[in-house]
Amino acid sequence: MLFISNLLKYIFSYKDPNTHLIDIAFIAEKIIGDETTIQLPSWRPGRYELGNFAKNIKQFVPQDEKGKILPFHKTTKDCWKIQTKNVKELHIKYSYYAVELNAGSTYLDDKQLYVNPVNCCIYIPERINESCEVELKIPDSYKVATSLKSPGSRSGGRRKILTSPFKSTAKDYHELADSPFIASPTLQHNMFVMDGVEFNLWFQGECKPNWTKLINDFFIFVNEQFVSMKGPIPSDEYHFLFQILPYRFHHGVEHLSSTVIALGPSYEVMRGDTFLDLLSVSSHELFHSWNIKSIRPTEMLPYDYTKENYSRLGFVSEGVTTYYGDFFLYRSGIYSDFEAHRALSKHMQNHFDNFGRYNLSVADSSFDTWLDGYAEIVPHRKTSIYSEGCLIALMTDLMIRKYTGNQRSLDDVMRHLYTEFAKKGKGYSEADYKAVCELISSTSFTEFFAHYIYKASSYENALTECLDYIGLQLLKGKSKKYHERHYGFKISELLPVAKVIAIYPNSIAEQAGIQLGDELISINGYAVKNNLGDWVRYFGSDEISLIVSNAGKSRTISFLPSAEEYYQVYYLQKNSNPSEAQEKNFTAWCHRRF
Questions:
Q1: Residues 211 and 180 grouped into a single domain
Q2: Domain boundary residue among 123, 158, 186?
């Protein structure tokens, strides 16, 4: 790549990591006009809620080419107007407070400089399509993991280790915003090549990668995605950037040519269910390279970083990706029947446990992520675009297969969206998605969309009918947790305290006054830690007296467990006596024998 002098430059300086402040210099040449607008994104693609990144900016100092400080004022929380009369070159120095570590954040400590540029890189709106140069002033021992190209790469075969000094150029601000990087002396790296695409695996944090197993399993599911889409991802290289944390964590963010995945705890990442989680989120994020980074709703092409980009298509961008993330692992042979059924059962459980399905449709819930993000703030208000969208995608896939005698599937829908919309630079609408489903299946989807996408409802019967096509049964049984079955509330399984995360409508617990977010302090005078299940089994049908704490206030709540049963468990199981047609359909669906 030929690097020339760019008109827009970003310089990141690694100085005192203990302050968690990253010093950033923005330089813009050829300034025209008496006033220049400077913007910082108010959200990041991949999370459809406002991020308020500007709160982390400190010491915003605009200067001209001679170092003279320029007058400026703020017009919104993340927009500045700078007086630039007679200024040829604008220099802005500022610090970004980087103390949060997840897959979409920016972070600095004595081990790494980790940046999601969309968090902290300002830009001039009318020059958003100009190329941007990035320079990292980092210690000589630091390596850099990123999809950004650099002439300072040190090659060994096709393996590229990017080291200090690091300079790179993004073709425009959109590519810069979409290109996270990790600079650290402790990065661990390996790679493989498939169909001309270089796949890089980077691990930051305490981890002992099993490279043989990693590359083998990644090769398998990447190949399955290529086969499904009949070609490679829309990039000539891809980077999996893993932030491995010492505590339990699970988060991934997609980009066109990379993904950041934060996962923990360190000691479980290479084994058991946590390793399967690593494969699952990696498969999910890679498929996003097609679905949302390339195949994009009209409302998000291009991204407008200044405000909400409302769309009701979250059930496609996130739901279809959630379905395929695990399905590729199953179809390629990595998942067993048990693991695949467990993954789908989790989303079915989420559906039936979430009574917001009767209040807000999955399409409207997608629109409303911009209001309240992904947390349940108002009980039973909306559904999950991930779980609901996954089940909608499963039903759509099975319906298309049924209508076409297994000749077509949801794969064909996604390929059509890619070739006829993404590759032609077009976004797609809700009507487009429905029309493509109908084109592929030669059947109307009007009733399906009306009942299950645009209407707040449950769809147990429709889901059961779709599953029956491939010989699977949706079964339900009693929850093994007494407080879920007879009290009517759920608690977090990941926190060291027992905190209420869901309440069954009109249950004995809700009637007694249990609220979302209540932390359980004691039961019948005995302290509750992570042993609520043991205590409730012990007390059985006895009257319960709970002391709970919420918002700094404690309350005492008493009630008798109900004879009525509330929460149930849902799971998938193969039909014990499948028909020949069901066995055939099952094999066509997942490429495995029944």
A1: no
A2: 186
pLDDT in tens, 392-402: 999 999 999 99
Q: Backbone phi, then psi, for 115, in 5-degree steps?
A: -130, 130
Does residue 573 lie in a domain region? Answer: no
Tokens standing for residue 155: 């090659």
Which of the listed residues 148, 167, 186 is the one where a domain comes to its end? Answer: 186
**Per-residue CA distances from 256 to 106, 237, 296, 347 (Å):** 18, 10, 12, 26
User: pTM value?
Assistant: 0.95
Q: How confident is the model at residue 159 (pLDDT cuts 50, 70, 90)?
A: very low
Contact 91, 27 (CB under 8 A): yes
pLDDT tens track for 492-509 = 977 778 999 999 999 999
Q: How many domains does the chain have?
A: 4
How many H-runs (helices) and E-runs (strands) does the chain carry? 18, 28
Token reading at 431? 């009507």
Distance, CA of 106 to CA of 99 (rounded, Å):
7
Coil, strand, or helix at residue 568?
strand
- C-alpha–C-alpha distance, residues 412 and 420, integer Å: 12
Asked whether residue 211 falls in the same domain as residue 304, the answer is no
Domain hosting 140: range is 1-186
Nearest to 320 by CA among 362, 357, 284: 284
| Total Cβ atoms within 10 A of residue 205 | 22
Give the separation between CA 235 and CA 178, rounded to whole angstroms: 13
For residue 158, the model assigns a pLDDT of 44
Q: 28 and 70 in contact (C-beta within 8 Å)?
A: no
Q: For residue 574, what is the enclosing H or E element?
A: strand 568-574
SS3 357: helix
Does the bond joining 165 to the residue before it have cis omega, within 30 degrees of 0? Answer: yes
Q: Quick: pLDDT tens for 540-583.
A: 999 999 999 999 999 999 999 999 999 999 999 999 999 999 99
In a domain, 572, yes or no: no
Burial of 511 (0-12, 13-18, 19+ CB in 10 A): exposed
pLDDT digits (tens, 9 = 90+) for 227-251: 999 999 999 999 999 999 999 999 9
The reply to whether 407 and 264 lie within a common domain is no
* CB contact at 8 A, 388 and 316: no
Same domain, 18 and 86: yes
Q: Are residues 159 and 71 in the same domain?
A: yes
Q: What is the CATH number of the domain that holds 372?
A: 1.10.390.10
Q: If you count them, how many residues does the chain have?
A: 594
Signed CA dihedral, 369, 371, 376, 379: sign only:
negative
Query: How does strand 526-527 pair with strand 544-550?
Result: unpaired
CB 414, CB 290: distance < 8 Å: yes
* Residue 349 tokens, joined: 């459980």
Distance CA 448, CA 522 (A): 47
Residue 219 phi/psi, 5-degree rounding, is -60, -40
